[in-house]
Write a sequence for this structure.
């Protein structure tokens, strides 16, 4: 997951739901579990990967379900599960739940090292999804669980749990990405990129956005409908790359970046380090800034009543208007396949509860995790958090971030640096297209 600078990530995840990408990750082998009659009303998952045998630790005649959660929320998760399970008369005489610490970034690696020894229910980062699917380490939600995933969560998080059109996990958060901070005394209408730049320039301020980064320039490429992602095998090796930046859609995106770079000195500038301090009233030069929740407290402190945060603006190229996009970062919860259908059903019930509105609000209240649940997003607490509200609005336009090799980040950084330097300020379409063709060729050759 990304916190400030992009981190290397493990797997190409679906850029499907929002940007329309396909993905050819290996399909999992599935087998439908048979729910017991007593649990038929629970709508047991429609199918499950036939992989690891159940690992039933028993406690006082009960089977222990192991849940992995980040250390920060272990105590909260255990406490909430204990209270919840006490009220589950159909299950509390058969199962105990033990929560153990395991970060989302490490969970997939641990699961794939030994699926059988892994947790029954586990949190993981969305960039791990394809690898877990390919290894048969996830049981797909079905029935009412599938309905809850699709109906209760925002579009970005549903896209993050989707691969090849199938849903494999439960969204837990929608809280990593970028959006627009702005000074309300400078920018009165933050809806369009061109307008934001013009308003900043008129006030002697700058709009700051980092286009010398493959994490930020997808705001333009994905915004025009492009796709770019890598395919990996279960060992983490690149097996293919889909990238259409050298298309008419990519040309529109590059033109938008070139136009923005041409406005340097008239309201736009490249984001330096320590971007949030640009709003400092003692010499600050920012009227607006593209950044994420990590800068929220500082920007809010500096701007006070003039603090504003909204989704990314639109941009217009050759008469056509596009919504700026970006990468989305999401935490997910997965269920390990089981040979015992009764236990499998209960594990899905646990995962469903862990990602419910109640649990998402509990984690927001305790740790400021941004909910993916649409009702939770509308709560007064989340809505009063302007940064999270802006991010939630933005993430509906953002695919989940997959794995990209290090060379991809180097290539896109160099590409953005050339644009920002003014290299293409007067270039014609043929020159821009040639530059995009060179970029795509290099991206597809990256390992």
């Amino acid at each position: 997951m990304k916190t400030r600078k992009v981190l290397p990530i493990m797997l190409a995840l679906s850029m499907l739901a929002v940007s329309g990408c396909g993905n050819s990750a290996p399909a999992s082998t599935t087998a439908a579990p048979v729910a017991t009659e007593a649990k038929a009303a629970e709508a047991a998952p429609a199918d499950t990967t036939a992989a690891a045998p159940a690992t039933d630790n028993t406690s006082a005649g009960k089977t222990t379900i192991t849940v992995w959660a980040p250390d920060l929320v272990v105590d909260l998760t255990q406490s909430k599960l204990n209270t919840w399970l006490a009220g589950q008369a159909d299950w509390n005489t058969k199962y105990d739940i033990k929560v153990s610490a395991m970060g989302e970034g490490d969970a997939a690696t641990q699961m794939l090292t030994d699926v059988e020894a892994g947790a029954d229910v586990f949190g993981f980062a969305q960039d791990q999804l394809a690898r877990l699917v390919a290894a048969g380490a996830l049981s797909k939600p079905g029935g009412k669980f599938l309905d809850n995933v699709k109906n209760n969560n925002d579009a970005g998080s549903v896209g993050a749990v989707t691969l090849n059109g199938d849903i494999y996990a439960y969204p837990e958060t929608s809280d990593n990405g970028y959006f627009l901070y702005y000074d309300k005394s400078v920018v009165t209408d933050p809806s369009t990129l061109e307008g934001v730049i013009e308003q900043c320039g008129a006030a002697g301020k700058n709009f700051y956005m980092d286009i010398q980064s493959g994490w930020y320039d997808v705001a333009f490429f994905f915004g025009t409908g492009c796709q770019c992602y890598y395919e990996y095998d279960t060992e983490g090796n690149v097996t293919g790359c889909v990238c259409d930046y050298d298309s008419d859609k990519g040309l529109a995106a590059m033109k938008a970046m070139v136009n923005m770079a041409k406005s340097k000195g008239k309201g736009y500038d490249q984001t330096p380090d320590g971007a949030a301090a640009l709003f400092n009233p003692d010499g600050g030069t920012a009227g607006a800034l593209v950044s994420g929740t990590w800068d929220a407290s500082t920007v809010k402190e500096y701007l006070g009543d003039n603090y504003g945060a909204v989704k990314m603006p639109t941009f217009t190229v050759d008469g056509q208007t596009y919504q700026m996009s970006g990468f989305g970062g999401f935490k997910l919860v997965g269920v390990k396949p089981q040979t015992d259908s009764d236990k499998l059903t209960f594990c899905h019930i646990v995962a469903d509860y862990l990602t419910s509105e109640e649990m998402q609000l509990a984690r927001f209240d305790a740790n400021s995790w941004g909910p993916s649940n649409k009702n939770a997003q509308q709560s007064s607490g989340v809505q009063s958090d302007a940064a999270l509200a802006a991010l939630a609005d933005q993430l509906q336009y953002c695919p989940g971030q997959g794995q990209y090799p290090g060379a991809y980040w180097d290539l896109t950084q160099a590409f953005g640096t050339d644009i920002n330097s003014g290299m293409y300020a007067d270039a014609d379409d043929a020159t821009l297209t040639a530059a995009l063709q060179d970029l795509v060729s290099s991206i597809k050759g990256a390992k």
